[in-house]
User: Which sequence fits this backbone?
């Protein structure tokens, strides 16, 4: 199948922009009229729905923040009655209160359609068996992919997370052709499979991985593809947007953000001015059709760049490059901004060390001290201390080159660093400031 | 490389430099009833390499590997030395004159004589040099 919804997915850019403007205008009138929160925010920013006269006028609208969701816990931002809600999801809330998201029937329909388009765009469809190894329940990943996969006529294997040996057995026995999970969990599965004497590359029919819910690098994609013999696609979303929403197509050049559902701005994080296409900045998202929990100019906190040219796959909707960091994941080490994703990128190019790592930040005297622990691979282990020291030097050198800040590296035993089944937590910050 | 009866398979284990790691290795060997004939720890910043001559190297490699340790076999040679002043000098001189570099060494005082275990840059050349210089090499079958 070429596309799930070719009329929308291959819509000429000018028509798409007109559609977006129309949707934005409707959204703003609706929120001004029915949402006390948005009404107040717009009054404060001295903007009236009549002031929105072009798509670019979106910049007149005030921003939304994660804290707005927390401050209005649980449902203060909903723009519908409970009668209209058909589902809740709740995010884990690692930094405070959890956030609650609600869905109308139409919200679920748009979410499912978004994923149906994405799954078809990476070559899946009827006849595929899609193993959904994202958590089911309050987390959006499991149920989101589940309904998307059913919609395109694929067979769903709803394994959820955990019990990895069983997952591998089922992957073989039920001939899964695709898996949806976090990239770190897939790496974990690959390791567990090898211990069981199963090669995912040779002993399963797996051909596609739909990987997301945490940042990962291009190098990690190459490693996964080579090692596991699959094509690995990035998928993006958060519960505020509905859940996992936007997926890469077979071109693997960034995930398509469906313009009829969302409008993306990339802004300079300092000046908040829009950046030209291709430049990295803070991503700000407006969901154009969400009913229950509208998100307007939401500062999601992810750093990326946009490519608005028509994709080689024929889709006209803009592509956003893989997330290269989070505004709030960013570590400041001796005044220099460091993203854990940069460390991952550096390590992936060094064959002697494994793909897992942990960052420990501490303060020695007045100085920040960053220690990166990496596992020495079995193949790279040498009896000679000097060889091991040179591996360590190599990693330190590479990290220094990429991060512009000196870090110390500790070689640890293989398998000793924590594995993550959900979102990877790779930073331990012991600084007391 | 053809099997040389003087080449001994030493096991080398990567270990983090923290309490309990040596105990974990030693316990694994005890469980398999493997005897350690000689051993040493080389220490670097934050990690170390435990090296040992054991009576069942294959079994030791398998067991430690299964426990997740990074294990490797390393070819070493064992030279018998006189347990008296000048004993070490004799062996070291032969290797030095033969232009053989010692990468590391450790020794123990055995029942009959002292034994020097050596990892050298060229095992074959070292064996030849020691035999030419009148030194006594210990066959691997005596350990394993």
Assistant:
């Amino acid at each position: 199948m070429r596309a799930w919804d070719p009329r929308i997915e291959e819509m000429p850019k000018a028509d798409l922009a007109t559609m977006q403007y129309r949707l934005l205008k409707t959204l703003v009138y609706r929120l001004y009229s029915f949402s006390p929160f948005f009404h107040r925010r717009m009054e404060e920013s001295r903007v009236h729905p009549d002031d929105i006269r072009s798509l670019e006028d979106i910049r007149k609208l005030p921003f939304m923040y994660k804290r707005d969701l927390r401050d209005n816990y649980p449902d203060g931002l909903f723009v519908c009655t409970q009668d209209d809600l058909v589902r809740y999801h709740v995010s884990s809330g690692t930094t405070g209160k959890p956030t609650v998201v609600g869905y109308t029937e139409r919200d679920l329909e748009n979410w499912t359609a978004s994923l149906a388009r994405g799954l078809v765009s990476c070559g899946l469809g009827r006849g595929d068996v899609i193993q959904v190894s994202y958590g089911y329940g309050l987390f959006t990943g499991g149920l989101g992919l589940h309904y998307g996969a059913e919609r395109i006529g694929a067979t769903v294997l709803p394994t959820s997370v955990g019990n990895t040996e069983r997952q591998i057995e089922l992957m073989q026995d039920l001939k899964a052709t695709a898996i949806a999970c976090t990239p770190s969990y897939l790496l974990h599965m690959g390791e567990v499979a090898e211990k069981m004497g199963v090669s995912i590359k040779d002993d399963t029919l797996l051909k596609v991985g739909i990987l997301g819910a945490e940042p990962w690098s291009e190098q990690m994609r190459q490693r996964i593809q080579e090692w596991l013999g699959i094509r690995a696609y990035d998928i993006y979303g958060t519960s505020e947007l509905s859940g996992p929403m936007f997926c890469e197509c077979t071109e693997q050049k960034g995930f398509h953000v469906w313009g009829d559902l969302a409008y993306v701005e990339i802004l300079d994080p300092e000046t908040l001015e829009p950046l030209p296409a291709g430049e990295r900045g803070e991503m700000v998202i407006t969901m154009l059709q969400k009913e229950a929990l509208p998100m307007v100019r939401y500062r999601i906190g992810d750093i990326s760049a946009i490519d608005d040219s028509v994709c080689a796959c024929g889709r006209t909707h803009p592509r956003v490059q893989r997330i290269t960091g989070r505004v709030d994941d960013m570590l400041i080490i001796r005044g220099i901004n460091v993203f854990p994703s940069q460390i991952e990128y550096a390590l992936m190019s060094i064959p002697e060390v494994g793909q897992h790592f942990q960052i420990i930040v501490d303060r020695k005297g007045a100085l920040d001290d960053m220690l990166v622990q990496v596992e020495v691979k079995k193949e790279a282990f040498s009896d000679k201390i000097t060889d091991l020291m040179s591996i360590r030097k190599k990693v330190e050198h590479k990290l220094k080159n990429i991060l512009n800040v000196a870090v110390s590296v500790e070689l640890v035993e293989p398998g000793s660093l924590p594995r993550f089944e959900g979102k990877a937590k790779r930073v331990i910050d012991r600084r007391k400031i | 490389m053809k099997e040389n009866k003087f080449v001994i398979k030493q096991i080398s284990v990567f270990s983090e430099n923290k309490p309990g790691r040596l105990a974990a290795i030693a316990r694994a060997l005890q469980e398999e009833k493997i005897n350690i004939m000689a051993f040493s720890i080389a220490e670097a910043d934050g990690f170390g390499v435990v090296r040992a001559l054991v009576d069942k190297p294959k079994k030791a490699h398998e067991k430690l590997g299964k426990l997740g340790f990074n294990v490797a076999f390393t070819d070493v040679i064992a030279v018998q030395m006189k347990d008296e002043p000048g004993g070490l000098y004799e062996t070291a001189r032969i290797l030095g004159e033969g232009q053989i570099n010692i990468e590391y060494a450790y020794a123990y005082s055995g029942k009959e004589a002292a034994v020097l275990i050596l990892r050298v840059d060229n095992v074959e050349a070292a064996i030849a040099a020691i035999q030419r210089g009148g030194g006594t090499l210990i066959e691997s079958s005596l350990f394993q």
Remarks:
- Chain B has a mean pLDDT of 90.
- Residues 5 and 106 of chain B are 20 Å apart (CA to CA).
- The first helix of chain B runs from residue 21 to 31.
- Helices of chain B lie at 21-31, 57-66, 87-97, 123-132, 140-143.
